[in-house]
Design brief:
Oligomer: single chain
CATH architecture: Beta Barrel
Number of helices: 3
Shape: globular
CATH superfamily: Hypothetical Protein Pfu-838710-001
Structural class: alpha+beta
Radius of gyration: 15 Å
Distance between the termini: 34 Å
CATH class: Mainly Beta
CATH topology: Hypothetical Protein Pfu-838710-001
Mean pLDDT: 91
Low-confidence stretches: none
Length: 144
């Protein structure tokens, strides 16, 4: 990352609480750097994928988690340590997920740009996962 002039934004311990919803995904991210309620829809397909999302920045220690837990119920919790980097307007996450392992996420508005970085960092098609961390935890039967 450093050889490509990446800007390090910090290391964030994030707890993503996923709530039970009828479609899409709803998660509350609580971290040292990022705090947000995020609703998103994204297909579970291999390779780079488009996400449609709505993001609402939250205030740490607000009662929103209790409200959502009581009204919707918790689906799963993803506990991760995330290193955040930027190269231009592309965001890179180096994630260590409790009970799952290490992952790289590339966030780019342009799928072509994302593909360029996959090739640059020699990330093969076989290394890509189709699902979210929450799905992986569900599949491995790691429950809260």
């Amino acid at each position: 990352m450093k050889s490509h002039h990446a800007v390090f934004k910090g290391t964030d311990h994030q707890i993503d609480t996923y709530f039970k919803v009828s479609h899409g995904r709803l998660k509350l991210r609580q971290g040292n750097i990022e705090n947000a309620l995020v609703y998103y829809e994204r297909g579970n397909t291999p390779g780079p994928k488009q996400s449609e999302y709505i993001l609402y920045e939250t205030i740490p220690d607000s009662p929103i988690k209790e409200i959502l837990t009581e009204s919707l119920g918790i689906l799963t919790i993803v506990d991760k340590i995330r290193e955040i980097y930027f190269i231009d307007n592309i965001k890179f996450h180096l994630d260590t997920i409790k009970d799952l392992g290490n992952f790289v996420e590339i966030e780019a508005k342009d799928e072509k740009k994302c593909q360029e970085y996959l090739e640059l960092f020699e990330i093969s098609k076989d290394d890509l996962i189709a699902t979210s961390y929450s799905d992986l935890l569900e599949y491995t039967n790691v429950k809260i």
